Amino acid sequence: MPVDVDAVVLSNTQLSHDYNTVTLAAPRLADQAGPGQFVMVKATSGDDPLLRRPFSVFEILRDDEGRTTGISLLNKRVGVTTRALYALRVGDHVRCLGPLGQPFSLAAPPERAWMVAGGVGLAAFATLATSLRARQVDTTLFYGGRRADDLFSLEIFDALGVHLRLSTDDGSRGDHGNVTVPLRAAFASTDRATPVRVYACGPTPMMRAVTELAASEGRATDVSLEQVMGCGLGGCYSCVVPVRGPAGTHFVRSCLDGPIFDGGSVVWEQLGE
Fold first, then answer.
1. Domain 112-226 listed as CATH 3.40.50.80
2. Is it true that the peptide bond before 205 is cis, omega within 30 degrees of 0?
């Protein structure tokens, strides 16, 4: 069951002019969080905004004895809530409801895991990478940004033994182009008999492109959709996703049935970009 906690800010690391990571003391929430789940956050004390906003659980924090102590959030400053998260100070309080949503299904050896992230979509993958490496799954992160300065927190994945395949739109780091450039090269160099599970999170056009590329190689993709949510509990129907089923296209709530979906089941042209 999700818990609603008044989490104290332990640190606020500003990664760039717009990105930061906030660590929050929330052991009860962290104890329950699975890879790919999210929290509904209110970082202001007033009524602007009135509703909470969803954020992927970026990391599960642990002390030296391995006990869970809290979570971290990866944030990009674009709106009222994200600006408030960017400006937090140590000792401030943040309301967090979670964990919510369905977690990722985990690959298992001999499967390989390929995580494909664009921008703040990286937030879905630190907990996933931790769980996969604990299972000794060979794991690769394909991570794209506009320029080198937009690629963050690589040390987290490097410490886990995750292979890094980077790309930038301007060619300042890694491959020149979007994240499908190194992904396409990886498919070309991998035998189709090798079991690979693909995970994707980021802008909708990117996830659609990854899903279609993987499908052309006979691979399925689990996508973590970043839908706007009003409540996170299924009551407001603001986060519906069109999916294909035996009876045709129908709508499901991302906060309950997702945010993880089989990319092949999503009706991308109706989802919007």
1. yes
2. no
